[in-house]
């Protein structure tokens, strides 16, 4: 910042105590753009006129003395700001680098927590699967009876085996009922494998054999939400809901059933993430009736 200024019209004032220092003389003016020789001649004339017409000042700018007219000193002031702006810019750059490091640390931590949650959720699914084979089988058979017009004796027999009826989709448990080797419940009772794979596909959008491949919790939640709404008369299923579910299934298959698409660092599955978001938006319209 300027510490002091004086002009040729004011009384002489000693504004710089170092008598060995020198002041830089700066004059600035404007000329018309023309041939170089014409601009040089015009600049000489204009600068000479400045000496007679312009008021001159002396200023200390960032520890250096300058003497000149307003335009000349204005250029010096702008030039003198550059080092300060560069210093400020470097400071901001350091802060940004620190913020980037912190953001990366938070993203890595988020990814770790998300993956840990995913593993825990899948382990929980398996534990519950071992307890509810009979309930899950009734869920599938009830769907066949109520929504696929299957009134066969076999389906009704499964439904009549117990009083507890499931009302929600359970992807892992239901898929295990289609294992070619059959399924045992917690009491060791052997269940023959279900053969109505079309029922499973209508509910979950994929073949039960893909359960070993689909272990990403957000994906499983989408499939189970669809099964819950599709199999229940308590929900008003909309055409938009079904359309967005099918779009999600197509995007899921296109990525070979990719997982981790909610991780910020996964940019190769943008279409799948978009379909996931659209599905849940449509899902909010499927409210329980009455």
How many domains would you count in the coordinates? 2
**How many H/I helical runs?**
9
Oligomer: single chain
Describe the main β-sheet briefly: 4 strands, mixed
Helix content: 40-55%
Shape: rod-shaped
| Terminal residue distance | 74 Å
Q: Give start-end ranges of low-pLDDT stretches.
A: 1-10
Number of strands: 6
Order of helices and strands: EEHEEHHHHEEHHHH
Structure characteristics:
coiled coil; four-stranded mixed beta sheet; two-stranded antiparallel sheet; alpha+beta; 2 domains; disordered N terminus; 290 residues
Detailed description of the structure:
- This protein is 54% helix and 7% strand.
- By secondary structure, the protein is of the alpha+beta class.
- It has two domains: 5-9 and 21-82, no CATH class; 130-283, no CATH class.
- It has a four-stranded mixed sheet.
- Helix 8 runs antiparallel to helix 9 (270-283).
- The protein is rod-shaped, with a radius of gyration of 39 Å.
């Amino acid at each position: 910042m300027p510490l002091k200024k004086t002009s040729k019209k004011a009384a002489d004032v000693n504004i710089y105590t170092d008598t060995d220092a020198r002041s830089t003389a700066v004059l600035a003016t404007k000329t018309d753009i023309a041939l170089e020789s014409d601009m040089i001649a015009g600049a000489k004339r204009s600068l000479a006129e400045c000496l007679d017409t312009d008021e001159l000042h002396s200023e200390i700018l960032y520890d250096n003395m300058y003497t000149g007219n307003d335009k000349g000193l204005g250029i010096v002031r702008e030039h003198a700001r550059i080092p300060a702006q560069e210093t400020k810019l470097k400071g901001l750059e350091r802060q940004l680098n620190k913020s980037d490091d912190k953001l990366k640390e938070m993203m890595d931590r988020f990814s770790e927590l998300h993956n840990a949650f995913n593993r825990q959720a899948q382990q929980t699914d398996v534990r519950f699967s071992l307890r509810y084979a009979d309930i899950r089988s009734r869920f599938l058979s009830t769907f066949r009876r109520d929504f696929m017009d299957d009134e066969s004796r076999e389906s009704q027999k499964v439904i009549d085996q117990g009083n507890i009826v499931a009302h929600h989709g359970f992807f892992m448990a239901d898929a295990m009922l289609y294992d070619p080797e059959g399924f045992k419940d917690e009491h060791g009772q052997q269940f023959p494998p279900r053969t109505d794979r079309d029922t499973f596909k209508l509910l979950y959008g994929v073949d039960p054999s893909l359960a070993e491949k689909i272990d990403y919790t957000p994906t499983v939640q989408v499939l189970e939400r669809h099964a819950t709404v599709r199999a229940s008369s308590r929900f008003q299923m909309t055409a938009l809901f079904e359309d967005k579910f099918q779009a999600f299934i197509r995007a899921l298959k296109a990525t070979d059933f990719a997982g981790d698409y909610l991780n910020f660092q996964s940019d190769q599955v943008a279409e799948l993430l978009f379909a996931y978001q659209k599905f849940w938006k449509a899902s909010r319209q499927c409210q329980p009736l009455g």
